[in-house]
Each structure stands twice: as C-alpha cells, then as structure tokens.
C-alpha cells in the first residue's frame, strides 16, 4: 500500500473526496449533507449516514439562531475547545461550558445530581438564544427535557449526541419526542468531538460555505 502525497492545505478536501467516493450512490438532502459529512469526517464512521436524526426545520432554525448571535452551551470543555472561535466571532456567537464552575459543582452536590444537570439549570438563566450541544452526558438531555416540558428553559436547538451505555439511547429518544428542534445521533454512538463537529458545520453553513 503506497502513501498518498497530499499538501497540508488539501488534506481536508481530499478527505471529503474519499468520503464521497465511499458513500457511492447513497445520497443526502442538501440541507443536512454538510453536517453528516463532517460527522463522518470527524469519526471515520459511516454509521452517521444512518443514525443522525434531524427534526423538521432543525437546520433552518439553527442557522437563524446563529445569525441572531447564539450562545452555544456544551456539556464538556473538550467540545467547547473544538468549536471554531473565529466562526463564532463572525456571527457574534459565543460558546460556554459550565461543568467546571464552582456554583455548578455546589448545586450538583446539594441536589444529589450531576454537574451536567446543574449546568442545564445555569444555562436557563441566559438571556440570548441558546443552542445546547450534548456530547457526553445523557443527564443533561434528561434535564433539558424537564425544562422543555415545564416551559422554563427551551433552547432554540438541542444537539443530542452523548456516547455510552447508561440512559444514552433513552435520553436521545426523549429529546426527539419532546418536539424541540434537534439533531440527534440515535443509538449509543456520539461524543464531544461529534458535538463540536456539528456545531462547526452549522457555523460554516451560516458563513455560506
């Protein structure tokens, strides 16, 4: 097997060409195609072609929210670090993660819950439109569902892609059933890298890329 010589600036483009070739005759609607492609590019996992669920109008809502200066809240600092800061700045958006905040830790300890759940409670106080991106903690999705049901805190979009086993599948289905605009990786797969990739794809789409 011979190495393929590719200039550093062309690696991403070449990667997407290889993904296109491997997808073959499998087609994607144009509004979700960049997101699915970037999820595959980030993970080298073609299962995302099948398992990414998009609620009706989710991408349109996401782009409108970005154009209105959204706050993207993530459930891990890894996801936060992976969101493109220059793209955020172009649209007057910011990204936050509250998992390491002392007040979140104190609330979680007092209530006997997780920091991810307490982070959702903190995000409920934001005064800007929120995109909530979950790549790790199903308890964040469960708490979001509770807020959505009560009407206390209703994000403009939920990205639900936690990875794992305990309550992962159930929490994702709860978000879908809540009726909130959402992008969800059904099943056990996901992760902070996937959450960041979806956020970046939406930001690039808002750029017109």
Features:
six-stranded mixed beta sheet; 6 strands; alpha/beta; 209 residues; Rossmann fold
Describe this structure in words.
This protein has 209 residues and is of the alpha/beta class. The chain has helices spanning 11-23, 33-43, 48-51, 58-67, 77-82, 85-90, 102-111, 115-123, 138-150, 168-178, 192-207; strands at residues 52-54, 71-74, 94-97, 130-134, 157-160, 182-185. A six-stranded mixed sheet has the order 1-6-5-4-2-3, sandwiched between helices. Helix 9 runs parallel beside helix 10. The model has no long low-confidence stretch (mean pLDDT 97).
* β-strand amount: 5-15%
Strand order of the largest sheet: 1-6-5-4-2-3
Poorly predicted residue ranges: none
For the biggest sheet, the summary is: 6 strands, mixed
CATH class: Alpha Beta
Rg, alpha carbons: 17 Å
Query: Looking at CATH, which topology would you report?
Result: Rossmann fold
Q: What's the name of the CATH homologous superfamily?
A: Cobalamin biosynthesis CobH/CbiC, precorrin-8X methylmutase
Helix tally equals 11
**Topology as a string of helices (H) and strands (E):** HHHEHEHHEHHEHEHEH
Task: Report the end-to-end length measured between terminal Cα atoms.
Answer: 34 Å
- Helix content, binned percent: 40-55%
CATH architecture: 3-Layer(aba) Sandwich
- Mean pLDDT, rounded to whole units? 97
